[in-house]
Design goal:
- The structure is a single chain.
- By secondary structure, the protein is mainly α.
- It has a single domain, classed as Ferritin, core subunit, four-helix bundle (Ferritin, Up-down Bundle), CATH 1.20.1260.10.
- It contains 13 helices and two strands.
- It has a two-stranded antiparallel sheet with strand order 1-2.
- The protein is globular and about 70 Å long.
- The mean pLDDT is about 95.
- The structure holds benzoyl coenzyme A (BYC).
- Benzoyl coenzyme A binds next to α2, α6 and α9.
- GO terms for molecular function: phenylacetyl-CoA 1,2-epoxidase activity.
- It comes from Actinoplanes regularis.
- This is Ring-1,2-phenylacetyl-CoA epoxidase subunit PaaA.
- Pfam families: PaaA_PaaC.
């Protein structure tokens, strides 16, 4: 069989494509685009919650938040490593991010105004991420699928810590309950936008699904997220800010309103509330860390030449 036939057969039999296997260039480029965007999202996603580490209300909350934000850095590293198996260069991907040539999730361009936002990010943003990412554990590209298994385990812990934080606040003072409702009002619609544009306007979905990189369309996953979130909101005692939200017995799903798609377009093309600040911070971190990368590369080089010198 030719490489092309082996690839088609691997996809048809639901097996994994591995880095050394032949793959169509479009498949490789789609994966690099999606995995890099995903990795950038994890790294930029450290900023909104990271801003609250020094202002966490207790030592326990600070320790939990530190661990969570550190996990996001780890997710970024697994994903950049998966992209490297496709021939991408990590430094080049970072450059593309800070020059605005590659995207990261729209959700991280909104401000975190109170500590309730930390809980709502855990509940809704990590919840949306889980909905989107659990099917990616069965993605056709081996290194991506394997990275997602580990990431999903950690995301599920993140979601629980968010929900537990919100439960605690909802059992507190009226002001605390108002903070939670205000955070839900601000994050609900942007969370729905995390799944991408509606299927009719999603240029990449059909191709990605045929290659089994994506297993479900953007709208299918958005519906799954709404269905999952409504009972959780009821248990928490908050109102989701959508007057059109109601159970549809015929469809056996919740009907819901239409997100403002023009807002998603603005945010993913660099004009959201905090895009400039997020990228400026990332650019600063990249230049602050340059000496560490240089020192690590010089050390690796020295080890290599010492190894060569001793005949190993
Ligand atoms: N934000 O054809 P479409 C996390 C772009 S991090 C920005 O539907 P596709 C977490 C899309 O890239 C969560 N851009 O695309 C971290 C494409 O533009 P390009 C991140 C978006 O790829 C810290 C164009 O719009 N998760 O979990 O088939 C703390 C057309 O879209 C967005 C992932 O990245 C958006 N919302 O589907 C807490 C998951 N939506 O690239 C949590 C992996 C669309 O052609 N990624 N675009 O210039 C995916 O599943 C898919 O890439 C998407 C989009 C569903 C996002």
């Amino acid at each position: 069989m030719t490489g092309e036939e082996i690839f088609a057969d691997t996809i048809a039999r639901d097996q994994r494509v591995e880095p050394r296997d032949w793959m169509p260039d479009g498949y490789r480029q789609t994966l690099i685009r999606q995995i890099a965007q995903h990795a950038h999202s994890e790294i930029i996603g450290m900023q909104p919650e990271g801003e609250w580490i020094t202002r966490a209300p207790s030592l326990r909350r600070k320790a939990i938040l530190l661990a969570k934000v550190q996990d996001e850095a780890g997710h970024g590293l697994y994903l950049y490593s998966a992209a490297e198996t496709l021939g991408a260069d990590r430094g080049d991907l970072t450059q593309r991010l800070i020059e605005g040539r590659q995207k990261y999730s729209s959700i991280f361009n909104y401000p975190t105004l109170s500590f309730a936002d930390v809980g709502v990010i855990g509940w809704l943003v990590d919840g949306a991420a889980i909905c989107n990412q659990v099917p990616l554990c069965r993605s056709s590209f081996g290194p991506y699928a394997r990275a997602m298994i580990r990431i999903c385990k950690e995301e599920s812990f993140h979601q629980r810590q968010g929900y537990e934080l919100l439960m605690t606040m909802m059992g507190g003072t009226p002001e605390q309950r108002d903070m939670v409702q205000d955070a839900v009002d601000r994050w609900w619609w942007p969370s729905l936008m995390m799944f991408g544009p509606p299927d009719a306007d999603s240029p990449n979905s059909a191709r990605s699904m045929a290659w089994k990189i994506k297993r479900h369309s953007n709208d299918e996953l958005r519906q799954r997220f709404v269905d999952m979130s409504v009972p959780q909101a009821e248990a928490l005692g908050v109102t989701l800010p959508d007057p059109e939200l109601r159970w549809n017995a015929e469809r056996e799903h919740y009907d819901f309103g239409t997100p403002d798609w023009s807002e998603l377009q603005r945010v993913i093309t660099g004009d959201g509330p905090l895009n400039r600040q997020r990228i400026a911070r990332r650019r600063q971190a990249d230049s602050d860390g340059a000496w560490v990368r240089e020192a690590a590369a010089a050390y690796a080089e020295k080890q290599r030449s010492a190894g060569n010198g001793s005949g190993r």
